[in-house]
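User: Can you write out an input/output pair for a complex, sequences first and structure second?

Assistant: Here is one pair. Inputs:
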Amino acid sequence: MYDRGWSDGLPLVAPTRERVLRMLEGTSRSGDEIVALMPPNLVECTVEKVAVNAVMAGCRPEYLPVVLASLEAICSDEFNMHGILATTMGVGPVLVVNGPIATQIGMNSGVNVLGQGNRANATIGRAVQLVVRNVGGGAPGGIDRATHGSMSKLGFCFAEDEVGSPWTTLAEDRGFDRSQGVVTAFCGEGPRILLDQQSRSAESLIRMLAEGLLASVSPRTVMAMDGLLVLSPEHMARFSDAGWDRPRFMEELGKLLLVETDTILAGAGGIDEGLPEGLGGLTLPKFRPGGLLVVHAGGPAGLFSAIIGGWVNGPMGSEPTSREIIR
Amino acid sequence: MHDIDDLERRGLVGVFVASEPFSEAAETQAGALGLDVARVFVAHPIQDRTDDEMRSLADEALDALTRALTSTPAVTQ
Amino acid sequence: MTEPVTVLDPTAEAIPTQRSLNPRPSGLHGLTVGLLDISKPRGDVFLDRIEEGLTAQGAKVRRYAKPTFTKPAPVDLRHEIAAQCDAVIEALAD
């Protein structure tokens, strides 16, 4: 199977007819139903083709609805998987799962949430990428020209810790009900750790988070790239203990994420990269309105959060996209 | 590539210009489209070039572009 | 001896119909050439120069721009180019 070009580099589970039929039992949708037009070749992708790749990735049948919803999200015009494949930036779909389905299928939202060891997290993201590769034709060396790539091109999927969060969930923030299963696709890189082990107040920690976020992708980008912040439970406690809810947190953070454009103009500080001179003298937000997503996940101990930098946002690039998970 | 493929379907003659590191991607895409889309490659990089350097690249590419649109196009690597 | 395992094909199994390029005209003199800017930085400078060269060959040039280099051109734009031009040059992907 590796020699046929079907693999992402890791061994695959052989997609026998029996295994694919068993996989299809994970959804009420018909095998010949079209899920999406799969980039880059823009070919029709059926539920059955998704099931074949899900078997190869190592998914259990109950994960299939999450894989299908993820593919619907990334193949939408607004998410723009086509452009994400072709860009040299090492970004890919980062999939955040909300709703009861996450715990029902055993997804990890706790210890080592962005790491290895959980079958659902690891194989759902992998299955999505195998479909892009095998059905869409998007493989590195061919259409995929990423300079470095990142784990989000291998498969990057996790669940939000909703039970342990005092806040509304990411999906609720995006207009869904807490009872719905929802996957949100964000175009991003791998996670980077933001360390703050000394802040004891919300006022201190939020300043530290802002400093870290200002460097997301590049300290010289403003409004052009989105971000995803994964707050750990211990960092979250600083805010919930102070009585901050999600809107308060976003408001306070927004005030600290303002950039004087004079400091990031081309040539400023002896660096050629930067904004054109005509944009000098302004104060602009690091992230466009709605351009910073915040989720709560991670193990109970550890005064770290994680920042996942994005890519060109909006109609020019990629829009974070949510889809309901239909079983 | 998708754009030129579509415009050829609509009866135009077309050619696509990219920088050299994208020749392999273009070849893969042409294979998938089923049309050996005419393409011309210029030297990489592009983003840090001066205007004069960009004009030189255009001067060097003009002949290949004209040939791609007017004769049996040379198949580029 | 183990039994051979039959696996299902995970690919699109779509073999595209091989098509040929449209017949090329003998020259560009008198023809309308569309220059389609994919809207990546620097492409406009390149195309400005190409426009000068094509005009010198007696071609009529029309300029177009995609809203973003990251997606195929919208269908309306492709329709407009097809209606107004004989030839098209798309640039500059890097």
